[in-house]
Amino acid sequence: MTKNFLHLMLMMGLAVGAAAQAETLKINGSTTVNLPAAEAAEALRKEQGLDIQIDTQGGSSGGISMLGEGLVQIGMASKPVKDEDKAKFPKCDFKSIHVGEDAVAMIVSADVWEGGVKSITKEQAAGIYEGRITNWKELGGADRRIAFFNKEPGRGTWEVFTHWVYGDSKKAPQVNFPEVGGNEEARSKVGGTRGAVSQLSSTWVDNEKIFALGIKTEAGEVVEPTAEAISSKRYPLSRPLYLLTNGEPAGTAKTFVDFMLGERGQALVKKHGYLMLSELK
Amino acid sequence: MTRFFCWVFSLLALLAFGGLLAVFLWQSLPVWQAEGVGYVTKNRWFFRQQEFGAAAMIYGSAMVALVALLVAAPLGLGTAVLMSEYLPNRLRWGMKVLVELLAGVPSVVYGLLGILLLREWVYDSFEAFDLLSGDTLLTAGLLLAVMVLPTVVTLGDDALRAVPSTQRRAARGLGLTRAEVVGSVALPQAARGMGAALLLGFGRALGETVAVFLVVGRQDNQLPERWWSMQPLLESGQTLTSKLGGAETSIAYADDLHWGAMMGLGVLLLVLTGVVTLLGTIFRSRRNANA
Q1: DSSP code at position A106
Q2: How many helices (H) and strands (E) does chain A have?
Q3: Which of A194, A247, B176, B187 is the most exposed place for a label (fewest CB within 10 A)?
Q4: Strand partners, A145
Q5: What is the CB-side half-sphere exposure of residue B207 using CA atoms within 13 A?
Q6: What would the pLDDT profile of B239-279 be if each residue is shown by its tens digit?
Q7: Is the separation of the CB atoms in B39 and B52 below 8 Å?
Q8: Beta strand A52-55 with A222-223: parallel, antiparallel or unpaired?
Q9: TM spans, by residue (chain B) (predicted)?
């Protein structure tokens, strides 16, 4: 009980006993899923007068744990719910609803891109992550230190990255890099720092301040995160986007899920640069 | 009657703080059992390997608060002297209002300003040091300096105003100049109160979360190799508050030991700020003792 309460205080900064309205639909989780979901919520507020609170506390992990705690009706996650998550919250019957697909890019700042680094291999990514490669010279770029911003633990983006490099997030070594939270933060920090690299959803790449490196396969082929490469699974760093509910969605939660799966919701998924369900083979 | 209520409410406040500390201690028990003293002395925080040593965060917190104080002390106390000793009353009130306004700015706004202006400024100004990014302990310290200024100015001003003006007049009557009066009459008597102002500012700097979180870089296990150089200040770090404000709290929630470690940071923070604030208050309450 105490733990529950403290957690609530820390996560939400809520005052004690702030009475929540019963009919409020609370949604929390991944910033990646939040982009289309927030627009969907806005549309439902306007058109159907639904009372929806949508937030991105703690990323995917925050979505999973707050749903497990019963603090929200819908969680947003850009990674599958693992068995250990389910074991942590035995009371919660996690239902994952697939709403789209996203690709994670290795993004670099403009000076790195213009310095001639256009692609990266899995080994090079591991080298940077483990601190063995510290200068862009080693990747054929200019003589500049690598400023690596690591996504903070619990973020879907980080899980996709480590899964790609190490085959399993659990095998990733523990490292000490400056950490970034949401996608906005990763974008602004990489954009404003020379020699920067981080992991970020490819949607956010603007090709002005931040650029996505191609992934160089062992065969020497460079794969860019294009829609075609993602849907055909040639691009290795892709991930599913989920809405999570406790049991089958009902009431306003069902309204929301149906909207996201419907034509307009899917259009929002596409609008934000992700792949719609219909585009996935 | 009044006295009775004073006692009751003082006790309530004490109970509240004690209760808070007790809850946090109780929640953090697992980590004390697992790590012992190592929890505060070890510089290894790897939660996936269940290793918890908070030394780097204690260092980070102390460092940013110290930088804040080093910058805010001359500025803040100087402003206090100007306000109390040199400005005519009207102007003084104007200044006071401005300082109060500064105190009223929400910390997240300071944080965003820090991202917009201070990060860039530090990044560009210290380019010679080959910074990795603009998120450094120094950036956080400078931002905190601005945030604790109102505390230092207001309390410093109060301490100076508490020195009776009859003494100033007597000193002027003996032929001392205005500057001499400030230097040899007002300042020595207000010294304790000004010390208290600094201590309370330090306490505020230790506890500030949002602004620091946004510009400190959040890099774990950063203890300096060389203590006497500028370098450690120009690297990213982690403070007790930035760690607690991060995503790890959500992850820790499912694991008793990890949760205990996070709560332990809360204990450290409470104890640190508590001790500093207490010292400051003791200092203040004795400010007119003629030592």
Answers
A1: E
A2: 11, 11
A3: A247
A4: A135
A5: 16
A6: 999 999 988 988 898 789 999 999 999 999 999 999 999 99
A7: yes
A8: unpaired
A9: 57-77, 97-118, 138-160, 196-216, 259-283
Give the tens place of pLDDT for each residue, B72-104: 999 999 999 999 999 999 999 999 999 999 989
Which residue is associated with the tokens 């992700």?
Answer: A274
For an interface test with A, which of B250, B259, B263, B265 has the most A Cβ atoms less than 10 Å from its Cβ? B250
Tell which residue, A89, A164, A167, has the closest CA to residue A125. Answer: A164
Task: Please report, for chain B, how many H helices and E strands are present, in that order.
Answer: 15, 2
- Structural domains for chain B: 52-286 (1.10.3720.10)
- 3-state class (DSSP) for residue B274: helix
Q: Which amino acid is at A68?
A: G
How many angstroms separate the CA atoms of B261 and A248, rounded?
36
Chain A residue numbers with beta carbons less than 8 Å from the beta carbon of B123 are: 192-193
Chain A contacts to B (CB-CB under 8 A)? 2-3, 6-7, 10-11, 57-59, 61-62, 65-66, 88, 145, 147, 149, 152-155, 170, 174, 176-181, 188-189, 192-193, 195-196
Strands (E), chain A: 25-29, 52-55, 74-77, 94-109, 119-121, 147-151, 179-180, 196-201, 210-216, 222-223, 238-246
Sequence-distant (6+) residues with CB within 8 A of B5 are none
**Amino acid in position A225:** P
Chain B hits for A6, CB-CB cut-off 8 Å, are: 23, 27, 263
CB-based contacts of B201, cutoff 8 Å, min separation 6: B68, B69, B72, B73, B76, B148, B149, B151, B152, B155
- Greatest pairwise CA separation for chain B in angstroms: 72
pTM score, whole prediction? 0.84
